[in-house]
Design a protein that fits this description.
The chain is an alpha/beta fold and 284 residues long. It has eight helices and ten strands. It has a domain of 185 residues: Rossmann fold. Helix 3 crosses helix 4 and helix 3 runs parallel beside helix 5.
Length: 284
């Protein structure tokens, strides 16, 4: 189902008034594995507009990870077109795609992907180096990004000195440091306990609601998808469902209802929060 067939979220932008940040038209992705070919995406068409917060859902093998790789200019469609901010990026060179990733897209991953022997500030600075930001500007930008996620006072700490939630905050700051127009987050709460997951969703909602940043997250957790404004469900490489999220959860309202980290009924091994089922949760 294409987005043109779905009413936009009441909290989202008016698509007719804006150019789409993301426009996919009949996108296929086929992987050639020697004697066999695997079709990961089958004719996907969709539009995502500035200021939307979209959750991408689906079982393993549904095509959602392939979709994110294409949206993040990490891979190209086999056929079909992908326009990012109105520019067709489907046929760009590797260097051109790298430049777009540096300036237009911020990435957040489940595993944080921080350099272990590098401070929080230096981890956040890293994308500014690849983007060619002047030396004198790098630390300033990195400090501002850490302030946005509430970690300015931890800028000198190494990842091993930070909790899981703090590491993910650093990863979000790193994604923001080059002022992207699009934030892509792949299972951003997958390694975190329940309370810390909501704290991370609060940051993403603030970036979306208050700063207008377009956010797309991949998640297999329906409760996490409820913090988005719109949900896309993939199955067998096709977009099967595209709906506005009704009764959207607001993280800043949910947090006060959760037990505090020192509550008696919390698991001390999870640093004050029960692990979500199926996760090796890290403390916040």
């Amino acid at each position: 189902m294409s987005t043109s067939q779905v009413s936009p979220s009441p909290q989202g932008p008016a698509p007719a008034q804006k150019q789409a940040t993301i426009h996919l038209e009949n996108v296929y992705k086929v992987y050639d594995l020697g004697e066999i070919q695997v079709t990961a995406l089958r004719g996907v068409s969709l539009e995502i507009y500035p200021g939307e917060f979209v959750a991408v859902m689906g079982a393993s093998g549904s095509g959602k990870s392939t979709l994110m790789n294409i949206l993040g200019c990490l891979d190209r469609p086999t056929r079909g077109s992908y326009l990012l901010d109105g520019k067709d990026v489907s046929q760009l060179t590797k260097d051109q795609l790298a430049a777009i990733r540096s300036h237009k897209i911020g990435f957040v991953f489940q595993q944080f992907n921080l350099l272990p022997r590098t401070s929080a500030l230096e981890n956040v600075e890293l994308p500014t180096i690849y983007a060619g930001v002047p030396v004198e500007e790098r630390a300033k930008r990195a400090e501002e990004a850490l302030t946005q996620v509430g970690l300015a006072e931890r800028k000198g700490h190494f990842p091993s000195q930070l909790s899981g939630g703090q590491q993910q905050r650093v990863a979000i700051a790193r994604a923001l440091v080059n002022n992207p127009s699009l934030l892509l987050a792949d299972e951003p709460t997958g390694n975190l306990d329940s309370r810390t997951s909501v704290e991370i969703m609060e940051i993403l909602q603030n970036l979306n609601d208050k700063q207008g940043l377009t956010v797309v997250i991949v998640t297999h957790e329906p409760d996490i998808a409820q913090y988005a404004k719109r949900a896309l469900e993939f199955r067998d490489g096709k977009l099967r469902r595209d709906v506005a999220v009704h009764n959207r959860m607001v993280a800043s309202e949910v947090l006060p209802t959760l037990p505090s980290p020192d509550a008696d009924d919390f698991d001390p091994l999870a640093n004050g929060a029960p692990a979500k089922p199926g996760h090796g949760a890290q403390p916040g």
